[in-house]
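so the lab meeting is tmrw and i was supposed to have these ready like two days ago... anyway. pasting both below. for each one the top line is the aa sequence and the line under it is the structure tokens. i havent really looked at them closely yet so no promises
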Amino acid sequence: LVRHGKAESRKTWQGSEATRPITPLGSAASYALARELACYAPNKILSSPWKRCVETIGFFASDCSIKIEEISELTEDYHEKNPQDTLNVLINTITQLVNCDQNDNYAKTDTNDTTNTTAMCLHRPIIGSFFEYLRKITNPKAHKRILSMRSPYMHTGSAIVLHIINTPKGARIIDIESVIPIVY
């Protein structure tokens, strides 16, 4: 899960929320984050279609020649009106990932095959809703501290990596890593 890079201030931005871009610092962090994300080799990218999310994950997508799937349910506006629909995007993605692992699709390399690693770029309010759900499927108490209960949940331009397995009780997170790129 990726939180978009530092964006232009809401107070000073003259355009719509959907077109508010990342700042030069947000751009630098997004560039650095792309190098960090490459270590996990995501082969699918989901994102809010809003400019700041697409710009943030765009560096990684461009470097890896992966198309960004823009999901309208991941916008702040959609989430505000239909939070369960937004949460269902996460739940369905996790279900697809654990089913892919269960079917042993790791060896497949064709881009049409089911993927097993997904990057998802989000907005702060959505991350809070996602974390609430993720805390429920995280077994080790030590990992729950990474899934903050307080806003802003994650730093702008950072990511968390969820290691998820399928169990008889459903998907469970067995490890979580924080990814905060260093920007000079």
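ok protien two:
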Amino acid sequence: GGRGGPPPVLKPGAQKFKVVRGPDDTGLYADCMPPGVPQSFSAPYPFQIVQNSQMVVIFYEYPNVFRIIPADGRPHPDDPDPTWMGNSVAHWDEDTLVIDSVGFNDKTEVNGYRHTEKLHVVEKFRRVENGNLLYDVTVEDPNVFAAPWVMPQRTFPLRPELEKIDEFVCENNRDY
């Protein structure tokens, strides 16, 4: 997700979803579990996007997870099984790739806030003239947020020197 910007407006009683880290908390990425969407784009590791006319695949170096996203016009399944990275479908809106994701479990967080299985994330990717990628994301959870949370736009630099992402192996799933 985007960094900085205003915090989300929480529903009454939803303050319990704000993550408060104590002195012994090693942080979001220390347990080597999938950070979810859009949080995977905030990990300090590269990602790679591969696409054809029928699908988009996003590989995240950390923690060695991926998303296979149909881009053929299909809808979400009626009742997707909750997963760490959710169920995503994509379509093109002119020069912008729009990825719509639902079906998340409640084990991840979004920029310092927990969520429920009702999380809904819409991501938009657009290539600009210099090859960089603009990223916009809107997060909704009717159980937590009073309104859609539009995060600040991010720019991901094109890194042609990185031909591929590397293997990431977490040898300890409790703490670095």
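from a quick look at the 2nd one: The mean pLDDT is 92. The two ends are 23 Å apart (CA to CA). will dig more after coffe
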